[in-house]
Amino acid sequence: MAQDLKDCRVSCKLSWEDLQALCRRERLVCKQLSVTKNNFNDYEVEYLCNYKKHKGREFFLVKWKGYTESENTWEPFKNLKCPILLHQFRQDMKTALLQANKPLDSESLSTPIVSFLLQRAKQRLKLQKWEDLMNQTCKQKGRIFVCNEVDLDGPPKNFIYINENKLGKGVNVNPVIVGCECDDCFSQPVDGCCPGLLKHRRAYNDNRQPMAEVGECGRCRGFTKTASLWSILESCVLHQIITTEEAERRGVVYDKQGVTYLFDLDYVDDVYTIDAAHYGNISHFVNHSCDPNLQVYNVFIDNLDERLPRIAFFAKRGIRAGEELTFDYKMTVDPIDAESSKMDSEFSRAGIEGSPIKQIHMECKCGVKTCRKYLF
Fold first, then answer.
1. Is 163 left (phi over 0), alpha (psi -120 to 50) or beta?
2. Which pLDDT tens digit goes with each residue over 302-343?
3. Which parts of 230-285 are beta strand (E)?
4. 160-349 — its CATH code?
5. Whether 113 contacts 119, CB under 8 Å
6. Which part of the chain is CATH 2.170.270.10?
């Protein structure tokens, strides 16, 4: 039995840094973790809790990684080698003092301000752990960054990042295994070939911009933006796909909560529904704007079932580096853009992150000049 388990391994629940802190706390030497007697006293600042100034010197209350809050210590500025944490703390302290109408050069902080700083520090830790988890899970290139400078909310509860659509009970996908055998798909009228089935209409124009009335077939592709090229996002919207019967059952629950995360995939038949409540990829967090830079379209990849289109975001215009990606939850479109209009009608009903089931006036906070003031 022992021989069978010789190569059996499980992941440690503690991070490398946590294990190092634990060894130092217990005064244990560990070569694998680079913990020696010479660096037992190398302590890591987990976050800063409080601030005071005495005789012109700044002191910070430090929460040490691997130690309890009861073991926090006041340290002078010169002892701290954590510039990022110090910068974040000073920014948060400035915000709190301004909101409380207190002078920015205060020598001590009131209890409400200290409470705010502590909550902000703990929030950042939670968001950082969640950011690391998503980046470990995400299979796409690039890194996901998470921040919240608006309120004290942490990561969403009961949300799981996925790399492929999660299929509910009763949902079956027939994948596309092979391509066509055409020498020239656009000139040969071969039945069964994608261009042939679409009467040789192209999915993209000469500038590689999507033709709204034609769906995309094949793998989702990513275009790099140039001066004359609009980009198509490399990933489609991923969520859980369920039957309409299951959607009706879940809708009763969401109705009691006053929100919905459901919208129908009724491109040809009202058979399947997307539930965005608990599963999704980075597109789950794309927000609304009355002047968006993205447009939503049906696309067909990996399967030819018209009842199961994927939802993809296409850039409506050039997007600057660092600019927030948005789409209109109640999008108005060109009348000839029938394909997009059909999809937008569903998004306006539900949206990526969910919206009220009842048609109530929900305030819009997108901040653009053309803001309609209300989402619905």
1. alpha
2. 777 788 888 888 888 888 888 888 988 775 444 334 444 444
3. 240-243, 262-265, 272-275, 279-280
4. 2.170.270.10
5. no
6. 160-349
